Amino acid sequence: MSATNPVPAMPDARKRTTTTGEMTGAEAVIRCLEAEGVDICWGIPGGAILPLYDAFARVEHTVKHVLVRHEQGAGHMAQGYARATGRVGVCIGTSGPGATNLVTPVADAFLDSTPLVVITGQVPTHLIGSDAFQEADTTGIFMPIVKHSYLVTDVRDIPRVFREAFHIASTGRPGPVLVDIPKDIANQTLNFTYPETVEIAGYKPNRTGHPLQVEAAAEAIARSRRPVLYVGGGVLNAHATDELATFAEAVQVPVVTTLMAKGAFPDSHPLCVGLPGMHGSKFANWTMNKADLLVTIGARFDDRVTGKLDTFAPGAKIIHIDIDPAEISKNRHADIPIVGELKQVLPALTASYLELRSQDRIVSKREWKDQVEEWRFKHPFRYRRVGPLKTQYVMERFRDLLADRDVIYTTGVGQHQMWAAQWLKIERPRHFITSGGLGTMGFGVPAAIGAQMAFPEKTVVNIDGDGCFQMTAQELATAVSYNVPAIHAILNNGWLGMVRQWQQLFHDERYSETLLNANLPDYVKLAEAFGALGLRAETEEEVDAVIMQAVESRRPCVIDFRVDHDEKVYPMVPAGGSSAEMIDEPWDNEWVEDGV
Question: Where are the domains positioned within the chain?
């Protein structure tokens, strides 16, 4: 089975522009966006950024601007677009609070390696440092959470700055880049020419990987008896899902995919072991912890995967392949480090391994694969099919009813996110978009809007919690204004569910400030007040009908699923515990296995 990417690999969407001549700095920004192939951006105007918005209204251009209701929404929509397409997302805010409202999505993009160019207005240069109205040290605030930042002090630098910003955001380990433009600079004029090439001193991401290290890695895989491919979101960032599929099928060993890598390797593939970590499966965690070799591909040994680090995969040697040299041996020592682009390294590693196989120098992995398959059979995800409506059941129905459709899922953060990762089956890359490293509540609504605007013809479903939804629900106004038919499925248990779960398990059931009230607000009426379709399901018998009504409506839609407030996400690795030691709830009632 192939993991062929249905989305064109577009790390460089630049198109040659013939626009030259004298123009303002604000007009030059728009011409830079056009030159980079930007088709859409999200933002809100304000005083310091007003020259750019005036230019949007005054000159002919090909960039669609979407007016959002909060800058955080602009950032997450740009993320949803970037994660769905593989291209650079663009968001815009004014100075001061406009910029600081972008901090959360930019920090989220930084931890999840999402390419963004973030454009902010700044007070005029002669007022910088004077505590002027809506002034903030934007470049200073953003410094720890961007790959690079620019404060433009010469209007003639705008073309070079934007050429560099898009290059930095989309190459190497992708990430956000800030461009802060004072108001007076935006109003000054320049003779515009967009650079065709870019040269940045000291910025030379390694592409190919050292050939001797690649050969050593192939030898280690050939000699190992219990190898595992530990795959992270870097595979998606590198547009290397086809190369991963070819490599996995060549070596024929289990493939573990992290939350950020879900969809990078098809969930239905016989080699796919799926989700590891705090709420991963027992069989995925046991597979990693009994391995004698971890082939780590675009992953970073995150604590939510490893648990207690010194007990994680204790008998395994480590091959670590990553574009970012800072990740190599940061958390776990790499016995064989390979720094390079996965799209280059994986084919070289595949070829080296196949050469060893042709020489009959491969140790059999059959016994290991059989063991992993036995664990998978004995320890599937499961839940009790009794009492109130279960979130897991809702996830199964989305999965099965929409199996033949091209569906992109986004999520918020919390219990519903983990249930979505456990129960949804994602077969194609860039079809599961969630907040990983920062764990940002409120991510799902705007990310779904951004993904839907990238692909209007697809079905986009945001799996959300009632707590998450309320953080960015105002962006329903954006969805309705632009007729963005993403579906927002609220798994409404009336609580901050994941926090409540921890309070119940580890804080003697002291439920401090986690009760939300499932009836506040009335989500159906709220959706209708925004002009969206509002639906509700409280029983299993109602679930299928509301899902299909939402999908077939092709309208912005909110579904209020009233789910069991006491259901918890299992299995679970307690914080600070070993990922091999997972806790379960006693199952003394009827229960359902994954896939049954």
Answer: 21-192, 211-378, 382-593
Alpha carbon distance 208, 220 (integer Å): 19
State the DSSP string of 246-292: HHHHHHT--EEE-GGGBTTB-TTSTTEEE--STTS-HHHHHHHHT-S
Confirm whether 77 is a catalytic residue. Answer: no
Euclidean distance between CA atoms 410 and 459, whole angstroms: 11
Tell me if the pTM is above 0.90.
yes
Whether 457 is catalytic: no
Q: 3-state class of 383 per DSSP?
A: strand
Catalytically annotated residue among 1, 134, 188, 585? 134
* Three-state SS letters, 549-583: HHHHHCCCEEEEEECCCCCCCCCECCCCCECCCCE
Average pLDDT along the chain, 596 residues, taken 10 residues at a time? 37 59 97 98 98 97 98 98 98 98 98 98 97 98 98 98 98 98 98 95 92 98 98 98 98 98 98 96 95 98 93 96 97 97 98 96 96 94 93 98 98 98 98 98 98 98 98 98 98 95 92 94 98 98 98 98 95 85 66 53
- 183 included as an active-site residue: yes
CATH number listed for the domain at residues 382-593: 3.40.50.970
Q: 134 an active-site residue?
A: yes
Catalytic-role residue among 10, 133, 377, 528: 133
Written out in words, the top-level CATH class of the domain with range 21-192 is alpha beta
Q: Out of 71, 164, 341, 567, which one is annotated catalytic?
A: 71
Tokens of 171: 């190459």
Say which CATH architecture domain 211-378 belongs to: 3-Layer(aba) Sandwich (3.40)
Among 270, 263, 286, CA closest to 410: 263
Q: Report which secondary-structure segment, H or E, holds 476.
A: helix 476-481
Please tell me which residue in 23, 260, 471, 498 is annotated as part of the active site: 498
Under a CB-based contact definition with an 8 Å cutoff, are residues 172 and 141 in contact? no
Contact present, 523 and 592 (Cβ < 8 Å) = no
Annotated catalytic residue: which of 56, 110, 183, 475? 183
Instruction: Mark whether 290 is an active-site residue.
Output: no
- CA quadruple 563, 565, 570, 573: dihedral, nearest 10: 140
First to last CA, the chain: 23
Residue 261 dihedral angles phi and psi, to the nearest 5°: -100, 5
